[in-house]
Amino acid sequence: MIKLDNLNIEPLQDELAEQLQYKIDQKAKPVGSLGQMERLAKQIGMIQGSLTPQLSKPVMLTVAADHHICDEGVSPCPVEITWQQCLNFLNGGGGIGLFSQEYGFDLKVVDAGVNFDFQPHPRLIDAKVRKGTRNFSKEPAMTMDECLQALDNGRNIVAKLADEGTNVVGFGEMGIGNTSPASALLSVFTGLDVDKAVGPGSGLTTEGVMNKARVLGDAIKQHGISDNAIENLARFGGLEIATIAGGMLEAAARRMIIITDGFITTSALLAAYAIEPNVVNYALFSHQSQEQGHKHMVDYLGGEPILDLGFRLGEGTGAAVAYAVVKGAVAMLNKMTSFDEAAIVNTANLGIRITDESNN
């Protein structure tokens, strides 16, 4: 059995759960009236093992790679867009360049396997394993050594961030054609029929979606499904997906807050979950993507999207925007006045449960 070395992800400790819930319920508001923000505050407190969690030096890792499965016509976009967009991100452009700046992330672009030679840049992390995964309709996308290297690269990147004081890491991606490996992994890891796992990606026609489903279905039949998660990731994944999965695993091992983006980064979490199930406890699901299959991923992992804005851009944009809510949840837990502080009678303590009538 192929495993990762020195990986220890602890389950969340329940000792603080009751204390965190009590603190939240003592805020000067009707019980539960801040909805999911209360759940986020409790989860973050449990991740950090603290009644007063803190958010420190958030980093956005937008991880990029190319995919030779594009040779099969699974994407309508030219593959050159991958490296061109990476250059755009490095210069602060694109959705993720803008939103990282607006919402307080230090953006890093990770070259996990782009078919291009980048010049050094302060925002660029060189973690290239090879120039794109192989066409997995004909052969495995990665060798086992390549997949393990990508996983280790992700772990090493996040370990360095943790050592520098980061405790929040958002994950985004860039890679023309990468909805194909994400769809294949969705089918392989959850058992969902390929036809339901495949969507239009960046704009396929109905005929294109049908071709994509056929290509992926044939590839899964050809290679088979292993009982080892890393072997499945190597057969059908992407270098950016494997790198993100490794980063998520290391983040959980370091008790960091993971913020997923959409379809591609959640496929990386599926892979990470198959390797070590405790990883999911450290993940916040930023939004509900419009890509078919994403809801199934989130439901399978037991998650609840923070936002539903109709996003399907990728890059980490959903994770960046959702961070505003994450910050609000932590601020509520740490700074919002309690009933005692505001000298207001707490009706919950009197056995009376009220709702916020201002929203009725």
Please render the helix and strand layout as text.
Elements: H1 17-25, H2 36-48, E1 59-65, H3 81-90, H4 94-103, E2 106-113, E3 124-126, H5 144-163, E4 168-174, H6 179-190, H7 194-197, H8 206-223, H9 229-236, H10 239-253, E5 257-260, H11 263-275, E6 283-285, H12 294-300, H13 317-335, H14 339-342
Parallel strand pairs: 1-2, 1-4, 2-3, 4-5, 5-6
Helix pairs in contact: 1-2, 2-13, 3-4, 4-13, 5-9, 5-10, 6-8, 6-9, 6-11, 10-11
Detailed description of the structure:
Pathway: Nucleoside biosynthesis; alpha-ribazole biosynthesis; alpha-ribazole from 5,6-dimethylbenzimidazole: step 1/2. It is an enzyme of class 2 (transferase). Belongs to the CobT family. Its EC number is 2.4.2.21. It is a single chain. With 360 residues, this protein is an alpha/beta fold. The protein has a single domain (59-330), classed as Nicotinate-nucleotide-dimethylbenzimidazole phosphoribosyltransferase (CobT), large domain (Rossmann fold, 3-Layer(aba) Sandwich), CATH 3.40.50.10210. It is 45% helix and 9% strand. It contains 14 helices and 6 strands. It has helices at 17-25, 36-48, 81-90, 94-103, 144-163, 179-190, 194-197, 206-223, 229-236, 239-253, 263-275, 294-300, 317-335, 339-342, and strands at residues 59-65, 106-113, 124-126, 168-174, 257-260, 283-285. It has a 6-stranded parallel beta sheet, sandwiched between helices. Helix 6 (179-190) runs antiparallel to helix 9. The N and C termini lie far apart (56 Å). The model is unreliable at 354-360 (pLDDT under 50).
